[in-house]
Every structure is written in C-alpha cells, then in structure tokens.
Write a structure and sequence with these properties.
Radius of gyration: 16 Å
Distance between the termini: 25 Å
Helix content: 40-55%
Bound molecules: zinc ion
Structural class: alpha/beta
Largest sheet: 5 strands, mixed
CATH class: Alpha Beta
CATH topology: Collagenase (Catalytic Domain)
Order of helices and strands: HEHEEEEHHHH
CATH architecture: 3-Layer(aba) Sandwich
Strand content: 5-15%
Number of strands: 5
Shape: globular
Number of domains: 1
CATH superfamily: Collagenase (Catalytic Domain)
Length: 177
C-alpha cells in the first residue's frame, strides 16, 4: 500500500511542469559554451527528477535567475564557485563566479571540460535556491569539488543523492502548487 502510494506520488512529482531558469551571460561566454553548460545542468537535475527549461534571451519568463559573472563580487579570500542569494529579496537569484570556475578547471587540467563544471555549478546553485538552503554534503552538493569529483562529472557519475533528489522533487512540486 505504502509502496503504491509512493510510486503514485513519484509519478505525480515527475509530471510537474518544468522549472524555468534564466541565464545572464555577464561574462560574455560563447553561446556554444553556455549551451553545453545548460545541457549538463539539465541532465544532472533531470537525474534527480527535476525537469528544467533554460533561456538566455531577453525577455523570457523564469522562476530562477543565474548570473555568470566575470568579476568576483564577494570576499576574494573565500574560494566559492557561486552563491545563491537566499534570505534576500533576490532569493530566486544566484551567481556563478566564472573566473573561479575557470581557475578550478585549469588547476585540475584534463579532469573535466570547463562547460561541464560550469553546468554543475549552475545545477548546484539552482538546488540551493530550490531547497532554500545553503547546506552542503557530498557529490553535486559538495562545498568544494576535488579532482575526483571533476572526473566523475566528466563521466556523468556525479549526481544528487537520493535524499537530495527527493527534497528537490518535493520543493519543485511545492513551488508549482
Ligand atoms: Zn553551495
């Protein structure tokens, strides 16, 4: 009985309308790089049962907004690849600090393509916004990725945990209702 209910609930959650995300390409990256990053972000979120649509044109309606910045707007002593503006009026907004994504990818040269890492940062920040939490764990939601994590990204082995996937699906559905 419980299993049937769980399966039905899972079916409903998977059927929810995709979340829309707008990319602000402030770093002026080539369109192909943005498209490749979006492909990775969509894939890893989809593996967690969360479907997304992305746009970088103006205008476009969106639930969330992610700016890919060329500068680092935060304390330069803190090595963050991105951050979500939770608890502010911009709670549905996040930033990706592009120079730091580039730095990490170059530091672990050959471990993962830049666009792949960029896509994972985008998915990571979207998860923060969706769950309204700054919490970190392992895998996609690790606070700092190792060379092994980057290699796992390049092979599409790095995913959200089952618990994170459930929390993301719940948050996505709640947002729609
Ligand atoms: Zn984080």
């Amino acid at each position: 009985m419980c299993l049937l209910l769980l399966l039905s609930l899972t079916a409903i959650l998977h059927a929810s309308e995709p979340l829309s995300v707008r990319i602000h390409n402030q770093a002026r990256l080539p369109a192909a790089a943005i498209a490749a990053a979006i492909t990775e972000a969509r894939w890893v979120l989809s593996q967690a049962g969360v479907e997304t649509t992305w746009c970088d044109a103006d205008p476009c309606r969106s639930d969330f907004s992610i700016g890919i910045r060329q500068d680092d707007p935060r304390d330069s002593q803190t090595f963050v690849l991105g951050f979500a503006m939770l608890g502010t009026a911009k709670g549905n907004t996040a930033c990706v600090v592009y120079p730091r994504v580039l730095q990490l990818t170059e530091f672990h040269a050959g471990a993962a393509p830049l666009s792949t890492v960029l896509g994972y940062v985008m998915a990571h920040e979207l998860a923060h916004m969706l769950m309204r939490s700054h919490a970190h764990s392992a895998g996609v939601m690790s606070a700092s990725w190792t060379v092994a994590d980057l290699r796992a990204m390049s092979q599409r082995h790095l995913r959200f945990s089952p618990a994170e996937a459930s929390a993301l699906q719940y948050a996505a559905t709640k947002r729609r209702n």
